[in-house]
Amino acid sequence: MVAHVLRLRLALLVGALRVSRGRAISGLVIAGLLTTVCVAALTRLGAASIDSALAVLAVGGSAIGAGFALVPLLGPVRDPLDPRRFAVTGAGWATVAAATLVAAPVSVPAVAVIVVCVALAGLWGAHGVDPVVGVCAAVLVGVTQLLAARVALGVSGLVLAERRSRELTALFVLALLIVAIPVAVFLTSLDWDGGMPPPLRTAVEVLGLTPLGAAWVFPLAPSVPSLLMAVLTPVLLGIVWVLIVRRMLTATERPVSVREHRGLGWFTVTPGTPGGAVAARSLIYWLRDPRYLVDVAIIPVAAVVAVVPLMIVGVPLETAALIPAPLIALFLGWLAHNDMAYDGSAVWLHVSSAVRGASDRVGRLVPVLVFSLPLLAVAASVGVGINGTWSLLPAMLGVCAALLLGGFGLSSISSVVAPYAVARHGESPFQQPQRTGGGLTQGIVLVGTLLVALPALWFAWHALSGDPDASWLALAVGAGAGLLVLVAGIAIGGAVFDRRGDRIMAFAETT
C-alpha cells in the first residue's frame, strides 16, 4: 500500500508538469527562490552571534510553522493525498494513515523543507551543537512542518468547503499583515548595542516553549520544557492525523453541493444569518463604491498631516508619533455614523425582509472593522516604535479600542436616528447635496466618542508620564468602555431601526 501511494504521488507530480506546465514551473521557481533565500540566511547566521541566530530562528521558524498550519486552512489548497480517495482500495484506515504520511515528503514544499532542515543542521553545527543533536533537531523541525500541513489539510477536508473563495484568502492575507507589520516594526526598533534586547529575549523564550518554535530554539538554548515540547508536538500531530483519517474513512458525510456556494463572493465567507448577509452586501459596497474608498483613504493622510503643526511648534517627534493612531481610530469609529444614507434605496431589502435592527447594525460595522484593523495595526505599531517605549503599547491599544468601538456604538444609533443626505451613487465623492442638516449629528458622535475614551486617555497620560501599571489599566478601561458602548449602541440602534422602518424607507426614497 505504501509503495502504491508513493507511485501515485510521483505520477501526480509528473502529471502536473505535463498538464499545467506554466503553473508548475512558476511554482517551482517561487519555491526555489524562497528556499535559496532561507538557505542563504541560515548560512550567514552560522557566522553571526548566538543571540542573533536565536532571534531569527525563533521568529522566523514560528512564522514558517504558522504558515504550514494556516495556508491549507485558508488558502485554495487541495489535498492530493486525501484519505477518502483510497476508500475504494479497501485498505484499513491505519494503513491509509501510514501510507499518506510516508508519501507526504514527496512534494515541492516538502523538498524545500528538507533542504532548509539540512542548512539548519549546518547552522547549529557552526555554533558548536553536537552533530547528533543537530540532525535530530532538524528531523523534528521537518517532521513537525509536514505533519502540521497534513493535519491542516485533513481539518479543511472535514470542516471547510472544498473550494475556498478568494475572499477568504484575502482575509487570511489581511490577518497576516495585521500580525506581521507590528512584529516587523517591533524588531526593527530594538537596540542591539548591548546584546539581545530584553523584550526580544522574552519573546524568544516564549516562542521556545510553543509547538511552533520549540524545535527551532532548543539546540541553541537547551532546556527540558523546550525539548519536551519539540518531541511531543510531532507525536501529538501524528495522533491527530490518525484520528482524522479514521473519521474520514469510517463516517458518512452528508454531500454538499458546491454549486450552491460558487460565485457568491463574500456571501460564502460570512455566516448564513441576516447579519452575515448584511455584512456581505456592505463589504461589496465598500470595495466598489468610491464614496467609501475616498473616506478610508483620506483618514490616515489627515491623521498624519495633523501631526505636522505640532512638530512645527516644538512637540518632540517621539511624542507626536503617538497621535496618528488614536486619530485614525476616532475617525474610523465616526465613519459609520451616516452609513445608511449611502445605501439609497437598497435599505428597503432590510425593511421588507423583516431583518432585525440589531442584525442590520452589526452587519454594517463589519466592513469598517475589516478596514480598521490593518490601519490601526500599522499606525499603533509605527507610533510606539518611533517613540521607543514599548510599554506604552497596551495604553495605545486601549485608547484606540475605546475610540473605535465607542464610535461604532454611537454611530449605530446616529445613522438610524438622524441620517442626512450624501452624494448619490455614481456622483463625485466630494460633491455634497443641496440640503442642510447633519452637522449636529457629526459633532455629537465625535464628542461622545471622546467622552467614552476619556478614562483610557487619562490612564494613557499617566503611562506616558512613566507609570507602567497605568498602561495596562488604560487597555482594560478602554476596551471595557468601548465594548460596553458598542453593545448598548447596537441594542438601541437596532430597536430604533425596528420602530422607524417607515421613516427609514421615506428617507431612502428622497435621497
TrEMBL record:
The chain crosses the membrane at residues 25-47, 53-75, 96-126, 132-161, 168-190, 226-245, 292-313, 319-336, 365-386, 392-422, 443-464, 470-497. The keyword Membrane applies. Keywords: Membrane, Transmembrane, Transmembrane helix. The keyword Membrane applies. This is Uncharacterized protein. It comes from Microbacterium radiodurans.
